[in-house]
Protein: Replication initiation protein
Organism: Paracoccus aerius
Amino acid sequence: MAAEGQEYRIPFAELRGNHTSNDRVTEAILSLMQTVVRVRMSDGSTRNVHLLGPTDIEKFGPGIATMLTYELHPKLLPILQDSQIFARLEMQILHGFATKYGMALYEIIAKRIGLKHVFYNDFETEELRDYLGVPEGKLVSFAALRRKAIEPAVAEVNLLAPFSCRVDVVEKQGRKITKLRVSWWLKTIDEQKAQWQAQKGQQADLFPPALPNALIEELNG
């Protein structure tokens, strides 16, 4: 990954799971190519870069495409290489999110969940609005922000992620909500196992037929 201009190749068979068509994978590739990652760097600057660079879809003979070749933008590489900036996002989890606010809140917590002795993060209300990706001029009142963005996002994270969370008001200036606290905690082993089984039932094509040994060891360890 450190080599600028490096090309990566992966068979479509590994991407489409049990499906016999590449339609969903192709749509996902195009979506990733149009997705812009916005990251606040350690020096305080903001970096905007496309999540996926140029791609080639190859066919070897008749039938559906068999190989994907892709590149990553060089400005994206430092983000991916820094474990404190980039969180490994599980395909099974992301596939379940129905709202961008839920996915954004999941990302906020996922890159902090491994920090020892850190169980919450305080955000200025406008800062959290920005992190969630609320369009400018939308959900202007806090009541609307809470009802349309924060509460649905918390509900989705608690349903899909291996951790639970809540968002509380921690500071007001008069009647204005100025600071919010995002708190998180890991789910119990039983909660994670039950969640895994529930997700498997809803997204069977993305899951192996049995609980992976690695996950069993992780949950029991």
Observations:
- The mean pLDDT is 79.
- The chain has nine helices and eight strands.
